[in-house]
Amino acid sequence: MNFNLPGTDFVPFTQSLSDDRKVSPKRPFVEANSEEISLSFLKNKCIIPVFTKDNETTLSHQEFIDSAFNVVKSIYPNEVIEAPEIRVSHQIKGRTPDAIHLPVKDLKDEQKTTYYERMAFIIRIPSISEDINGNRLSLTVGGVRALNTENLYNKKTSEKFKIFIGFQNMVCCNLCVSTDGFKSEVKAMSIIDLEDKMRELFSSYCLQSHLNAMIQLAKYSLTESQFAQIIGKGRLYNFLPKSEKSILPELLLTDGHLTTVAKDFYNDDSFCKDEFGNINLWNFYNLLTGSNKSSYLDTFLDRGVNAFHFTEGILDALKNSDSRYSWFLQ
């Protein structure tokens, strides 16, 4: 099958990663309005958008995933590497030219076309792991592609991707990502260019430094009163005048996220308050990352990184009354 639609093109893709190695946990790493999808479906059933003015193809979701897998294999040749877990959202449907005038009920499968505007994936490396506060963390890499950020009605230009390396908490499948392991906008013209950018990030990431920072979180706790103060100030933060908000540290979580955090403070099986009403910062951080699973695919990585640095900021405020984060505890 080979056909063109406005802004889309079907392009065969050579598979280099076995599709039958699909392994995913019981809980997804992100939820929102996304759904899990197989690499095989992306490669064999989805068309690939093009830049309409020159008909140049975009770098496809499957190429992005396959390249990340190859980079991980080259950097960690002796480690166990699981197959990607893939989530997609914002499906774009179409049909082949010969089916333009057919009623929907008469469409055959081969006359239907589809691609997904947004895609996120993770690749776990479970042989590199650590325990923090009784939780098993596995090294994880991944990325996000959001075609809504590209101008597909123009000529081909550098395309934008988000990539990360960090850890996944296997108790809840929450992602633990810091600034050092995250690139919020990687621009690439080709797969080779994208692979070079991923290799640079994955190779430079200092996992021990990230782990040490997370281990510190388990050593400090919030009282129920302090937790309530943070939640209340977090709600106020989103409505502050721009002049006041600009002098405070950034908080990307919304009222909806904070409501989930408040609820889980009492009800979460793994990270709720203890019998004295206190919660250590490791558990607090996991409540934040748990609430972040309701974010759209194109925003959840930025919010996940922000959740980590916000928790580090609260730790700083507990130790130093002059901290920029003290406003959230006052």
From TrEMBL:
Domain of life: Bacteria
InterPro entries: DUF3871
Name of the protein in question: DUF3871 family protein
